[in-house]
Amino acid sequence: MRKHFSNPSPHRSLMGIQIAVIGKEDCTEEEYRAARAAGSAIAGMHAVLCCGGRGGVMEAASRGAREKGGTTVGILPDTGRGNPYLDVVIRTGMGYGRNAILVLSADAVVAIGGGYGTLSEIAIALKEGKRVFGYRTWEIDGVEGCDTPEEAVLRAAGAASRSG
Amino acid sequence: MRKHFSNPSPHRSLMGIQIAVIGKEDCTEEEYRAARAAGSAIAGMHAVLCCGGRGGVMEAASRGAREKGGTTVGILPDTGRGNPYLDVVIRTGMGYGRNAILVLSADAVVAIGGGYGTLSEIAIALKEGKRVFGYRTWEIDGVEGCDTPEEAVLRAAGAASRSG
Amino acid sequence: MRKHFSNPSPHRSLMGIQIAVIGKEDCTEEEYRAARAAGSAIAGMHAVLCCGGRGGVMEAASRGAREKGGTTVGILPDTGRGNPYLDVVIRTGMGYGRNAILVLSADAVVAIGGGYGTLSEIAIALKEGKRVFGYRTWEIDGVEGCDTPEEAVLRAAGAASRSG
Amino acid sequence: MRKHFSNPSPHRSLMGIQIAVIGKEDCTEEEYRAARAAGSAIAGMHAVLCCGGRGGVMEAASRGAREKGGTTVGILPDTGRGNPYLDVVIRTGMGYGRNAILVLSADAVVAIGGGYGTLSEIAIALKEGKRVFGYRTWEIDGVEGCDTPEEAVLRAAGAASRSG
Fold first, then answer.
1. What are the tens digits of pLDDT across the range B26-60?
2. CA of A78, closest CA in chain D: separation in Å?
3. Distance (Å, rounded) from C-alpha B67 to C-alpha C67?
4. In Å, how far is B67's CA from the nearest CA of chain D?
5. Which C residues in the span 69-88 are in contact with A, Cβ-Cβ below 8 Å?
6. Which 3-state string (H, E, C) describes D79-122?
7. Residues 6+ apart with CB under 8 A from A34
8. What is the interface pTM, i.e. ipTM, of the complex?
9. For residue D164, what pLDDT is reported?
């Protein structure tokens, strides 16, 4: 992150801002592409990508961010290694406790697809007053629907920079 | 629980079965009455009531169970004392981590009303394959709606005894 | 617990007081006997026994308490069933997080033997200002050594009743 | 971390290795200096510094690593911001649960000074088979004592690179 100090971006820098991308391990190809695009967009804004650290949507977001030179953080439910695109690996060993930690660590949340685990994260985020931007995800009252993953990231970044 | 060994019930005994009642601290009077009735029904079947240990729906369920001589367990997010109707107080000090612990400890779940915290619990329960019986709660795919709190408890007890 | 309301004890009742017995799953026979005696003594004072819910010292304490008609609570690191002597089973699914929950839930702690897991629990208890009474356990500054498990329970009960 | 790909070090690179520095918030000046030196040494080897994210020893280690251009990760017990020298902030909201997460996330541990909280972390690390290198800390069986913080980091880095 500080590596960008000497390389000012014409875009607003979001160094230190942490954006979570949440979604299923067992995702569709379309969700994988969307999550990778989201990760890429997060890195492009010099924000830190946080995710659950495993496969599927989590891997795709890590991969997209890593490809753009961003910093990737995986918060695992177990004590394993996570996907291969993580710079920082948090091994919680706390099962569902990890879902809360991921959401609490994020300044804003992007949800892509997702099952019940993702729903639990959305619920905790909304309970905490964090904004959740969704792309083809649960249509729960409070989730702000977006037409593309890039739109979700852009709006999440805006929300995150104002929440600081 | 073992106290009932010498006092056999004409009803099927559910000793050792743990049923969670979940819902908001800041609940309506109608939700309070419903949760109290649910706690009463749980105790009447000699199951153990588990709840989040605080006020509102949690207090009402504890109170209803205690009034019928049942055993009440409160799993707190903090390290406090919880409501006055608890036999066993689990002080997690783990915030949202408690939501997962409550659901994982239950053999079946009864949801009454509820906000985002309750939704996070419903989601974890469904993810874990536990059945959730709802009374005026989130209409999420997977939640089995009931017309009365008593119906919710009865069906939860049935599900719990088969899940063992 | 309330079952004792109509059956007053000549001894001071400690209804509602929760005493934890901590120690290793892989314990010696002598530690097993000691933990069983501790559980028995806790039940004899109408306090609630809390433990880690698994085998070894945890099972022995649960068994001793159950044999005396006491209430037993097992707080598991996993989501299993625990030992056969538990009235209430808390399935945390949180690994080491359980160690903290057990200690935070106790009004006083009795440590019997023990390895590094037990040491982590002793440390958290002392950090929280809870008194720890040890029988053949870690000789850490702050642990109050006892000559018998019964002495440890008696002193723990005294500390717990004053901490309320 | 990947920023070093184009800037090969004559020293063995430990990119991706995570070393935890643990110790008290309320530390002595000597402990602060030692922790800062430890953080600096960790960054010098291109390992990632993990710490509890707050003040005292945690701040000093973060500061030392940041001053050398390293990556710093703070794993907080609460949901706050942590000290000003953190690149990645993990907000667990899980109290003592954080102690376990910090240790589980580390490939090796350096302990500097420390109270009961530090002792709980040392105990969990040893239970997990992770090596703990101590500088003026608890003399528990299993802790490997070192004469300087630099020696502790060097030996931790060696242990971490072999544990991978």
1. 999 999 999 999 999 999 999 999 999 999 999 99
2. 9
3. 27
4. 33
5. 79
6. CCCCCCCCCEEEECCCCCHHHHHHHHHCCEEEEECCCHHHHHHH
7. A60, A112, A113, A135, A136, A148, A149
8. 0.92
9. 56
